[in-house]
TrEMBL record:
InterPro entries: Peptide/Ni-bd, SBP_5, SBP_5_dom, TAT_signal. PROSITE patterns: TAT. GO terms for cellular component: ATP-binding cassette (ABC) transporter complex; outer membrane-bounded periplasmic space. Pfam families: SBP_bac_5. The lineage of its organism: Bacteria, Pseudomonadati, Pseudomonadota, Alphaproteobacteria, Hyphomicrobiales. Its main location: periplasm. Gene3D superfamilies: Dipeptide-binding Protein, Domain 1 (3.90.76.10), Dipeptide-binding Protein, Domain 3 (3.10.105.10), Periplasmic binding protein-like II (3.40.190.10). The keyword Signal applies. GO terms for biological process: peptide transport. This is Peptide/nickel transport system permease protein/peptide/nickel transport system substrate-binding protein. It is found in: Periplasm.
């Protein structure tokens, strides 16, 4: 099994412990009991409930309830730990052996064995509709080497793979359901092996799931089921919790913290995460096909002011895709783009960019997204840029920018983080990755550095490779990172056992309800 060095553990614990301190006494709980329906206010309709074909980071809040993963991540450190694979081992740098947990079945009764795991990995890697091919780029083949054992042969060493298998690529779907589904129906009728089984989805309104009575984890889950109410307007969602209509809301906007703190029936958890607001740029399309325009955009934003104005100070200014608490953070890269609107104007002039030209960027239409847009519009204006945001709901805007349509030159959204940083960089900055908006090529040395970051299990070696990766990404200004938002989750006091995590994506492993 992989190991974590003391340096990695301590660096990651810094962020996790900060979250616990800010969130209050997260662990002083009574004895858990079963029963009740957990009612959650969710800010977005899923793009898909098929982990292979979805395209929105907000999907995870639903997917993690219905699909178990081959590995899981530790809440405090993000270190991979056993999941459906009860153990794993690199027998050599190009061979990863997974030992699958016995006795697990999918919600439809299909056995979750080595054949099912092989089927899923090959589907995720090769299916034409899969959006996660890049996750498994290093996997040359998956072989059944025992009834409950799968051996992955790798085209290149990949120490990040155990962490990657705790995300979409490791979510196991029933092969029976995949084979029986007609085009697109699996998106709407998921069949996994998670703690909860799918019941219904009223589009844009409600998703209902029920306890998996044959779940392999002893006495889990505690609630009888979960009802997700889709409430894009977060103020309305917050009111639904204070009024008792829902029990919990996640991804709460920072402006709501002071309000929630004054409600006696509500408790709030918050702390640092990898969740970064950013503008994804399509560098295959004007004006962002010009590196000087991309760099100008990075110089045009006052990130400190953005954090104060847009996020009530409950965030960390972002100058790359990793926060300060992360072991792979590079201070020198963070210094590349100080706020400098004059330099931005100069770069635009050098690029031959005509002042006043409208730049259309996609965005979301909820109140908090619009507020962020208004702040950015003014910052860009001061640097000689006329930015117009074209808004639509989250799933629609994401599909329009990342999908075949390739609408707009950029998208103001969020990157929700990944357990291993190499996955973050490969998913956004390799040529055919889904989150590379234009599927445009990057410098060969960047692709090489991303591979190098996965070549060794030694954390010092990996940190050096990531320094190169981050510098190449930001020197080329392939993205405009803005701020790492703190996790902010509010719930009524009958919700017990909730734990924040550094990834900032809610999981309900230990949640139970008081009567």
């Amino acid at each position: 099994m992989t190991h974590t060095t003391r340096r990695e553990l301590m660096a990651l614990m810094t962020g996790a412990l900060a979250g616990t301190a800010l969130g209050g006494n997260a662990f002083a709980q009574a004895t858990p009991k079963r029963g009740g329906i957990l009612r959650i206010s969710a800010p977005a309709n899923p793009s898909s409930l098929d982990p292979a074909t979805g395209g929105a980071g907000s999907d995870h809040a639903f997917l993690f309830t219905m699909y178990d993963t081959l590995t899981e991540w530790d809440f405090e450190t993000l270190k991979p730990k056993p999941g459906l694979a009860e153990s794993w081992k690199f027998t050599d740098p190009n061979t990863l052996v997974l030992n699958i947990r016995a006795g697990v079945t999918f919600h439809d009764g299909t056995p979750l064995d080595a054949e099912a795991v092989k089927f899923n990995l090959e589907r995720n890697k090769s299916d034409a509709k899969s959006n996660i091919k890049a996750d498994l780029a290093s996997m040359a083949s998956a072989e059944v080497t025992g009834p409950m054992q799968v051996t992955l042969k790798l085209s290149t060493p990949d120490a990040a793979l155990p962490g990657i298998l705790s995300d979409r690529a490791g979510m196991m779907v029933s092969p029976t359901a995949v084979k029986a589904a007609s085009a697109g129906t699996l998106n709407r009728t998921p069949v996994g092996a998670g703690a909860y089984a799918f019941v219904s989805w009223a589009d844009g309104e409600k998703i209902v799931i029920k306890r998996n009575e044959k779940y392999w984890k002893s006495n889990r889950p505690y609630p009888d089921g979960i009802e997700f109410s889709i409430i894009p307007e977060l103020t309305t969602g917050a009111r639904s919790v204070t009024a008792g209509q829902n029990d919990l809301i996640y991804q709460l906007p920072p402006r709501q913290k002071a309000i929630m703190d004054r409600v006696p029936s509500v408790k709030v958890f918050n702390g640092p995460t990898l969740y970064v607001f950013q503008i994804f740029l399509n560098w295959a399309k004007p004006p962002f096909d010009n590196i000087k325009v991309r760099q100008a955009f990075n110089f045009a934003v006052d990130r400190e002011a953005f954090v104060k104005a847009a996020l009530a100070g409950l965030a960390e200014p972002a100058y790359m895709n990793l926060p300060k608490a992360h072991w792979a953070y590079d201070k020198s890269v963070a210094a590349l783009y100080p706020y400098d609107p004059d330099r931005a104007r100069k770069l635009l002039a050098e690029a031959g960019f005509k002042e006043g030209t409208v730049i259309e960027i996609g965005g979301y239409n909820d109140q908090d997204s619009v507020q962020r847009q208004e702040i950015l519009i003014e910052m860009f204006r001061k640097a000689g840029m006329n930015v117009k945001f074209v808004n639509s709901p989250i799933a629609e805007a994401s599909a329009a920018f990342f999908g075949p349509e390739k609408r707009n030159s950029g998208l103001l959204a969020a990157w929700t983080g990944r357990p291993d940083p190499s996955l973050t960089y490969s998913l956004m900055f390799t040529k055919d990755a889904y989150y590379n908006g234009g599927r445009a090529p990057v410098p060969p040395e960047l692709e090489a550095a991303i591979k190098e970051s996965r070549a060794s299990e030694d954390i010092e070696t990996r940190a050096k490779a990531f320094a190169t990766v981050q510098r190449l990404v930001m020197e080329n200004a392939f993205v405009l990172p803005l701020a790492f938002q703190f996790e902010l989750v509010a719930m009524n006091k009958k919700v017990q056992g909730y734990r924040p995590n550094l990834l900032g994506k809610p999981k309900y492993d230990d949640v139970w309800l008081e009567s």
